Amino acid sequence: MSTFYAEYPVEGAGSNVVTSLNGETGAITILAGSGITVTPSGSDITIASTGGGTVTSVGSGTGLTGGPITTSGTLSIANTAVTPGSYTAANITVNQQGQITAASNGASGASPTRQVLTSSGTYTTPAGATFLKVTIVGDGAGGGGAPTPGAGNSCGGGGGGAGAICIVWITSPAASYPYVIGTGGTGGTGSATGLAGTGSWFAGSSTYVAGGGAAGPSGGVAPFVTPSTGNALGGVATGGDVNLNGGDGGCGFCFSPNNGLGGYGGSNQFSGQVAGQSSITNGAHGYPFGGGGSGASNVGNSGMDTTGGNGAAGIIIVEEYYA
After folding, report:
1. By CB count within 10 A, which of 46, 58, 231, 249 is most buried?
2. Which of 182, 215, 236 is nearest to 309 (CA)?
3. Cβ within 8 Å of residue 113, ≥6 positions away
4. Distance of CA 148 to the CA centre of its chain
5. Tens digits of residue pLDDT in 188-240
């Protein structure tokens, strides 16, 4: 029968021989490694460390307080200038240690707002707005006049063209923008054409533009069924994400020696179309926003000149959104 020897290395100097360990008998050797002592006392063996660790001091570092610690102590996270509490859609500043060093309430979640602009000026972007949708509507032109045509004749002035529509989406908007809104062309009287619309624009006269409608021509004199005038073109939109040209004004007609008809006023997506006038009648004014005025009509020896309808003013609508 062989003898079992169990050898257990222990960090420390020296060694002692015991006769039994964990049920094992025989020669069992316990070796002490560096920094370890093995001390027998009666039937007991004490194994102890004679050395210590190499850490002698712990500093607090950035964002911590309580250091340096050389024996025992507590490290704590340093307070920042941020006021404790709840913030709505917070705007925060974070340092390299991941601490929030500044916080304030933001405008997130705010409902969209809207400004309706009806006269020229300067638009101011609201605080916190991060996105704008701008709809620019040009003004309509005046309808053409109709002179006294004389016995057996009739005439009808042409309708004015409608203003164009320019729609643009602006991200990261500037603090303010200049803008102009066309006020609408007036109708012509007798042999005079109407006045053209001057157009509307936002941010610059060549940036986002909704052109005004072209002037309605005055009525020509004729004794039979024929167009007495040509079409007046609608305004042209440029620069936007969506550019919609205005509708044309209608031609004036001479239906019979005693029945002239003014041309209808041009229309756009914001305005309806005004009908042309018959007999001895002034033209109708264009519908808001940006509609063209209709042409006047005249017949026979009326002894009076008739006047085309005025074009409608434009408008600018700014929708404001918040992140």
Report:
1. 249
2. 215
3. 126, 129, 319, 320
4. 54
5. 999 999 999 999 999 999 999 999 999 999 987 765 556 667 789 999 999 99
